[in-house]
Amino acid sequence: MPSKRLMGAFAFVDICLLAAGVILIVFSELWRMPNLMLNFTFSNEMLTGGLVLGIFFLLTFVLSIGAVVQKNHVTTGFVLLNWMLIADAVVDIVVGTMVWFFTLGERAHYFDVYKSLTRDQRIEIQDMYSCCGYFTQNDTVEIGGSFCANTTFVNSLVDPNNTDSFRCVAPLTKFTDFTLNNTFT
Length: 185
Hints:
With 185 residues, this protein is mainly α. The two termini are 38 Å apart. The model has no long low-confidence stretch (mean pLDDT 89). The radius of gyration is 23 Å and the shape is rod-shaped. Helix 3 packs antiparallel against helix 4 (76-104), helix 4 (76-104) runs antiparallel to helix 8 and helix 5 packs across helix 8. 19% of the residues are buried. The protein has eight helices and no strands.
């Protein structure tokens, strides 16, 4: 019979595994809601990866309960549990690597995402961050909204001596970098 300390430690780790699985599933589904910046940051593949990882964690939790309630001389449940924990680690590494990979080339990757947005979504981002266009004011600028209201105003923003002002790339990658790094960590 295992000691009470060992069973207590096992129960604590098992509850942490359950909590992690539930959190992964809940956030993977919550972040699919219509939210311009979260939908801009997280692709469906990332959210599906989080959902799959959460399901793996929950399956491991269920398997661990089955392994513990077996008789002392039967170890098949613990063998299966160890293999499932290895599978959890592999899926965790794959999903984590996928999120980490996106942090390496954010400016280029999110330029493609920005170009794929609708006109109204781009205008909403430009108004939110007081910027016009992604890299420059003439690459993907959308005239309209409250900030980039007309072409004259957009052309007045071009300053060859200052390549950082009024471009959407800096605030967008700041948000995506912060969000992805916190998600990855």
